[in-house]
Write a structure and sequence with these properties.
By secondary structure, this protein is α/β, with parallel strands linked by helices. About 35% of the residues lie in helices and about 25% in strands. The protein has a six-stranded mixed β-sheet, with helices on both faces. A four-stranded antiparallel β-sheet has the order 2-1-4-5, covered by helices on one side. Helix 2 (about 95-105) crosses helix 4, helix 2 packs parallel to helix 5 and helix 4 crosses helix 5 (about 150-165). It binds adenosine-5'-triphosphate. InterPro entries: AAA+_ATPase, ABC_AA/LPS_Transport, ABC_transporter-like_ATP-bd, BCA_ABC_TP_C, P-loop_NTPase.
């Protein structure tokens, strides 16, 4: 059974069809890239998976269970974490507190506990988890800094640590390489390659080098349709894919 199954999803915005019967299967432990020229429907697909956008038709299922009316705040309970385009960090919270917000899923009392004050033992365990996530991305020494004081590449790592702290089964990354330098992109390839082997990753990304080096499976969208799906080598050799990108560039 696939970890994530997007089946025949169509999304219409008024008269515009942003996605037309798109299907994507994501297996546990695989890194799956969603690529395509500008306006192909990548963000719309990401938003459907996250529950930001409701499909006009079709379905999204996690571990075989169809999600109905799911919303972004349901993702954590499904073992899914995401990072968004940009950073989404809270400017007035320290790096550690930003990551603790992601760790809250593991607190039995959850958000309510945070409001009412949770036990010291639980608080300490959460902090330990958050610090471990920061350390795994090499940014633990910045735990007590405000995000704005860090260079962009390190802030991206903090955003990734916040997603990873809940130890998700599925990590959704929307343009993780955006704004990174070439060497930071190389580091990101290493970070994704070093994730827990059973964790699945879905990434929407423009940087082809990164996609080709880190993904095992790729789905290519063009004008809202899947035009190719397969290994990086298969997708690169597909004439429809070359034509879609050449057409977009002309
Ligand atoms: N909320 C919306 N209302 C109307 N049209 C939308 C909306 N969101 C997206 N679209 C349109 O749907 C199509 C797909 O857009 P989408 O942002 O998903 O593409 P994309 O592949 O992510 O593009 P890019 O690479 O430029 O980010 C585009 O034609 C876009 O203009």
């Amino acid at each position: 059974m696939s970890l994530l199954a997007v089946t025949d999803v169509t999304v219409r915005f008024g008269g515009l069809t942003a996605l037309a019967e798109v299907s994507v299967l994501v297996e546990p432990g695989t890194v799956h890239g969603i690529i395509g020229p500008n306006g192909a429907g990548k963000t719309t697909l990401f938003n459907v998976i996250c529950g930001f956008t409701r499909p006009t038709s079709g379905s999204v299922a996690v571990r075989g269970k169809r999600l109905r009316e799911h919303r972004p705040h349901h993702l954590a309970g499904l073992g899914i974490a995401r990072t968004l385009q940009g950073l989404g960090l809270f400017a007035h919270q320290s790096v550690l507190d930003n990551v603790l917000i992601g760790a809250d899923r593991h607190s039995s009392a959850g958000v309510l506990g945070a409001l009412l004050g949770r036990g010291a033992k639980q608080e300490a365990a959460l902090r330990e988890r958050a610090m471990a996530a920061l350390a795994s991305l090499g940014v633990d020494k910045h735990a007590h800094t405000l995000p704005a004081a860090l260079p962009y590449g390190l802030r991206k790592r903090v955003a990734l640590a916040r997603a990873l702290v809940s130890d998700p089964d599925l990590l959704l990354l929307d343009e993780p390489a955006a704004g990174l330098s070439e060497s930071e992109r190389d580091e990101l390839v290493g970070l994704i390659g070093g994730l827990r082997p059973e964790m699945a990753v879905v990434l929407v990304e423009h940087h082809m080098d990164l996609v080709m080096s880190v993904c095992e499976q790729i789905t290519v969208l063009n004008f809202g349709r899947v035009i190719a799906t397969g290994s990086p080598a298969a997708v690169q050799a597909d004439p429809d894919v070359a034509e879609a990108y050449l057409g977009a560039a002309s």
